[in-house]
Amino acid sequence: EVQLLESGGGLVQPGGSLRLSCAASGFTFNNYAMSWVRQAPGKGLEWVSGISGSGGMTFYAGSVKGRFTISRDNSKNTLFMQMNSLRAEDTAVYYCAKDPIGKRYSGTYANWGQGTLVTVSS
Amino acid sequence: DIQMTQSPSSLSASVGDRVTITCRASQSISNYLNWYQQKPGKAPKLLISVASSLQSGVPSRFRGSGSGTDFTLTISSLQPEDFATYYCQESYNTPPNTFGQGTRLEIK
Lengths: 122, 108
Prior knowledge:
The structure holds 2 protein chains of 2 kinds.
Chain A (H helix, E strand, L loop, with lengths): L2 E5 L2 E3 L5 E8 L8 E6 L5 E7 L6 E3 L7 E6 L4 E6 L8 E7 L12 E2 L3 E5 L2
Parallel strand pairs in A: 2-11
Antiparallel strand pairs in A: 1-3, 3-8, 4-5, 4-9, 5-6, 7-8, 9-10, 9-11
Chain B lengths: L3 E4 L2 E4 L5 E7 L7 E6 L6 E5 L3 E2 L7 E6 L2 E6 L9 E6 L12 E5 L1
Parallel strand pairs in B: 2-10
Antiparallel strand pairs in B: 1-3, 3-8, 4-5, 4-9, 5-6, 7-8, 9-10
């Protein structure tokens, strides 16, 4: 069974940094692209970032490009998101999601974690 | 970026009703359209991919159709567990892969 468990969320001041993790199990991690998708309180879904199975290709939404960095450690079956220069508008539940197809990013999210809440506030 | 517009934004219906949610893309996306269901406090769940391919375990009362710019999600006979928010999302070409704004399906 695919399991994705996010951690690392919390309260941070504007301009601060946070590192999210997503521990994966139940599948061969390096065979699948992964993504982060966020949801601001009471709002819809917003794709944030994606990474290929090897980690060699990364993609970012314009709203986070240059501030967020996605990475993965395939030896530890873990996905990361380093978030710097955080803003109030980054406040959201952050979900990690698994691609259904394979190593190449497809833009479809077949399995999701339970999410971790990031709150940016002074 | 491709824009995705869902209608209606909210919908009230009764158990047993047939409901249809529409999704329109700002440009042709072939059949690269996914539908997700999200219940309050839970993660989204992929229901349908590539416009009409039902995911394993999803009841057959859910049906997706369409191609190009216009798509629909139909639930043939609403069940109590179907009351949720539904999102369409395009997976055409490179990121960003945009979501629609969501359709909240409520009990009448």
